[in-house]
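Extended Data, panel c. Modelled sequence:
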Amino acid sequence: MRNPTAHKMKVLLIRHGETAGNLQKRYIGRTDEPLCNQGRQTIAQNATAGKYPAADKVFASPMKRCIETAKIIYPKNELTLDDDLREIDFGLFEGKSYSELSGTLQYQQWIESSGTMPFPQGESREQFVCRTVSAFERLIAATGNDTDCVAFIVHGGSIMAVLSAYNCGSYFDFQCANGEGFVCEVERRTAESDGTSDGTAGNAAPKLVFKSCRRL
């Protein structure tokens, strides 16, 4: 087998700014909340301070909170939206807080499963990770070799889905606050290679390899 031709790029995974639901510690998935004033101010302050590296391409979830965040951080970049980058569907837990759900049988069962059970009338983690990683790979594949850095403005769950799928750690290792995220060095391979490698999704010959990952 021939060695792959590799293109290295930086991938930024950034969680959107705060919303009213975030401040109230509610499960906000399919609810299309905008940023709250505090969320807008924090993102703008971070951007002004140079927290977020420049990006050649910017991808985002189509939810208002992600679009607003992307436009504050990258006002001059064209924004590409992908519906499959939406947050997980929390089903019957949507819009509710821990205090409102605590003590209910369905919530207790979900907690005891370490979050692996599907949300009642919502998505399972497996379904969510599958659609999120598919969108991530599709968007990365569409970039050219002249692309040095791409930014994804997404949800907390989206970040956990991508990084856990590429063997960077376990799902909950990648929880991050609003406006925070990760900087990853990724190698995109354009041909099949010998053997296997850590940092790749699935069991196929690697196409994307995560070489490093650190918090912003």
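The mean pLDDT is 92. This feature is highlighted in the accompanying rendering.
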